[in-house]
């Protein structure tokens, strides 16, 4: 009886997290690129990124990164392959277990929010994100760029080890 309620709460939490990021569409003129090659797991992990203006490939300083979210997608069958055991299903398909999503959002939980992104100059920003465990995380950044009406949104794959 408790399983359907837990499943529904998890689904609602995921929908709320995705709705927050859906507010800002991905930008075609700007992109964040990852400068940190490896990030250690932490509740306040430091990730360095560069914001680029794509038409002229120039770094953009003075932006304000006002939202960031980190998610880790995990499939039980993928983990089984990584550790050498044979999974029940080798490829996801009809009837495959759904991915488990570990969301972490800026300002969530009883602890104070992570430190806001710091502009280091030359388009480089230092973002403090919640990345509590090893694996590949998707970091979604939303920023206001001077002179742009719409916010800039970008997703990066971060390897946490």
Describe the structure in your own words:
The chain is α+β, with helices and mostly antiparallel strands. It has a single domain (2-160), classed as Immunoglobulins (Immunoglobulin-like, Sandwich). Helices cover 17% and strands 42% of the residues. The protein is built from two helices and nine strands, in the order H-E-E-E-E-H-E-E-E-E-E. Strands 1, 2, 3, 6 and 7 form a five-stranded antiparallel beta sheet that branches. Strands 5-4-8-9 form a four-stranded antiparallel beta sheet. It comes from Roseicella aerolata. Residues 1-19 form the signal peptide. Residues 76-100 are annotated as: Disordered. This is FixH family protein.
List keywords for this structure.
Immunoglobulin-like; alpha+beta; 5-stranded antiparallel β-sheet; 17% helix; 161 residues
Overall spatial form: globular
Q: What kind of sheet is the major sheet?
A: 5 strands, antiparallel
CATH topology heading: Immunoglobulin-like
Helicity range? 10-25%
Low-confidence stretches: 14-23, 77-94, 105-112
Short description:
With 161 residues, the chain is of the alpha+beta class. The chain has helices spanning 2-22, 76-82; strands at residues 30-34, 42-53, 58-59, 64-74, 100-105, 118-121, 124-131, 135-144, 152-160.
List the helices and strands and how they pair.
Layout: H1 2-22, E1 30-34, E2 42-53, E3 58-59, E4 64-74, H2 76-82, E5 100-105, E6 118-121, E7 124-131, E8 135-144, E9 152-160
Antiparallel strand pairs: 1-2, 2-3, 2-7, 4-5, 4-8, 6-7, 8-9
